[in-house]
Design a protein that fits this description.
The protein contains eleven helices and 16 strands. The protein is of the alpha+beta class. α3 crosses α5, α4 packs across α5 and α9 packs across α11. It is globular, with a radius of gyration of 22 Å. The structure holds zinc ion.
């Protein structure tokens, strides 16, 4: 194993990611530049429009695909939340939900891909949901409209004025109700009562409890894809925040995507961890701790400044490495979620970010913890990198650590973080 961090006499820091081998250099004198999005004057918004800003907003639910499930608040349940499935289009419109699970209209791997490559068929539950949804007038109209959009997107010669046949709607509906690329969409675009457009409701602006439910709902969606499609070897989970990070809308959502391979990186890591079963512990949080990079902990998870990423990054690792994410206990998920929430809150809603999850898929019996990498998509130097595969990252892990610690202390003082989160350098009061 190559030493992940090396400091040179002039202050240059060479990083090698212990899991991917990505090489990143941080050159001195650049680390203190501000990373927040170039501030523009916030524009006023009319609070009456706050639920109709984009297609993910609760006032425009029929612009997205037919909803699979939703999380709503329900004081009658032990934890105050309830999952609801099988709503008609009329019912979806009638009530907002805190989080919604939907198929992506333009999926990375389509139903045809899974069906024609692997012979995969929709489950009985998917067929039943399709039938029920199409049985009401609003559902029928909704699916017809989406069928048209999908056909137009595929075929430039599609005749928008030509009425859809029953067969067209049926065919497109199968794909719409048998999606293997899902979205988990949060309710609000802006903070409640926001009057300017800078008050976006990003991950760090949810309450720790809301964020925990968001993570739990996402894990359950991931589990569902593995369960319903035996050809899904891996389910990728990620969150692009803000358009500069690849998001279609500045409205909080995660993507959950099944693929039929583990992918080159996971295959390499699996071989590595088979030889070195402590890989993630030793080269993850233990090494980060030895370098003074840990920012916070909970009972079963650690957050630290990441090493060897193309963008300045924070990582959250669960300490539980012997199970798939859906087998974690409620407390273990909460421990992971609360740290991820704290990292988002410390990063700030103005910074474009990618959040990438890594986990143990069911086909691998290896110690692989659930972990998330939160990448700050701030500008980096370019040109040099394509030829050398050495990336220049302007902010060192220690600068990420320092900046994050400063923000976390303020957030903790303001009571914005979960009580489970213990900041680095403080002693537990619990
Ligand atoms: Zn929106």
């Amino acid at each position: 194993m190559i030493e992940p961090l090396t400091r040179l006499p002039d202050g240059t820091i060479k990083q090698v990611n212990p899991f991917t081998g990505t090489k990143v250099w941080t050159l001195p004198g650049r680390g203190r530049r501000p990373i927040d999005r170039a501030a523009r004057a916030p524009l006023p918004i009319d609070p009456a429009d706050a639920d109709r800003i984009c297609a993910f907003c609760p006032g425009r639910v029929l612009e997205t695909t037919p909803e699979i499930a939703r999380l709503v608040r329900d004081p009658a349940t032990p934890d105050g939340w309830r999952e609801v499935r099988g709503l008609t289009a009329e019912e979806v419109v009638a009530m907002p939900a805190e989080f919604r699970l939907l198929p992506n209209l333009f999926e990375i791997l389509s139903y045809d891909y899974w069906h024609l490559t692997h012979g995969w068929e929709p489950t009985v539950a998917m067929r039943a949901r399709q039938q029920a949804y199409l049985s009401t007038p609003a559902g029928r109209e909704h699916v017809g409209r989406l069928a048209r959009t999908r056909m137009d997107a595929r075929d430039a010669n599609s005749r928008a004025d030509k009425p859809l046949s029953e067969a067209d709607v049926e065919r497109e509906a199968v794909g719409l109700f048998a999606g293997n690329h899902l979205l988990v969409v949060a309710r609000r675009h802006y903070e409640p009562g926001a009057h300017v457009d800078s008050l976006l409701r990003g991950s760090g602006r949810l309450t720790p409890e809301e964020h925990w439910k968001y993570v739990e709902f996402t894990i359950s969606a991931m589990h569902g894809l593995y369960r319903d499609n035996e050809h899904a070897r891996y389910v990728s989970v990620f969150q692009n925040w803000l358009q500069a990070a690849g998001a279609s809308f500045d409205h909080l959502h995660k993507q959950v995507v099944a693929i039929d391979e583990l992918g080159a990186q996971l295959e390499r890591e699996a071989a590595q961890v088979a030889r070195d079963r402590d890989l993630y512990e030793r080269w993850g949080h233990t090494y980060a701790d030895s370098q003074g990079l840990v920012v916070a902990r909970t009972s079963t998870a650690v957050a630290f400044a990441g090493i060897g990423h193309r963008f300045p990054s924070l990582e959250v690792h669960s300490l539980v490495d012997d199970r798939c994410p859906w087998d974690l206990t409620v407390d273990q998920v909460r421990d992971f979620s609360d740290l991820l929430h704290a990292c988002h809150a410390a990063t700030g809603v103005d910074v474009p970010t990618n959040e990438e999850w890594h986990h143990r898929p069911p086909s691998l019996d290896l110690p692989m913890p659930l972990r998330a990498v939160l990448k700050w998509r701030v500008s980096t130097l370019a040109g040099f990198e394509g030829g050398t595969k050495i990336y220049v990252n302007t902010i060192s892990p220690w600068s990420v650590h320092e900046r994050t610690m400063g923000r976390l202390r303020m957030l903790a003082a303001d009571g914005e973080l979960s009580e489970r989160v213990q900041l680095s350098g403080t002693t537990s009061t619990r």
